[in-house]
Amino acid sequence: MSRPAPGVHPALPATEQDALDWFDTERDCLLTLLRWTADQDWNEDAWRIAWSMDEMLRRRGHVHDRVRVWESAVFAAERLGAADVQCLAYGRLAHAHDAAGDHAAALPARRRALALAAHLHDRGGQAQTHRTSAFPSRAGVEAARARLDASPARPDA
Description:
7 helices; Serine Threonine Protein Phosphatase 5, Tetratricopeptide repeat
């Protein structure tokens, strides 16, 4: 994204909690901004807004917003034609789908990220994509634990 105009000095939050509170207040506005930048074909800004929002959405547990944000970023990256940005966006989309518990939707995004990383000869990108797919999401672990707790006790063999 562009630097602020001369004379504009964005306020920085004093604490991490201030940043989280600000994000909670402005989340809907930021999501609208992302959609608007995509509609305006401002693709560079759109994927950067998605990237900027990702950590806060993750921290706040907005898994479905993360999916929508990275879907927008993938769309913007495709229109840019920048393979490196596409690789990042597809990898983050796969991670967002996994966090939302939709592993079937994560697979094609992960495959695309891996293909792009291979095309770019980006071994680090390939490793990162594999690494993020190797760790189960908290929601996935909790769902597995609930299924285990609900299953009838098995007698010892």
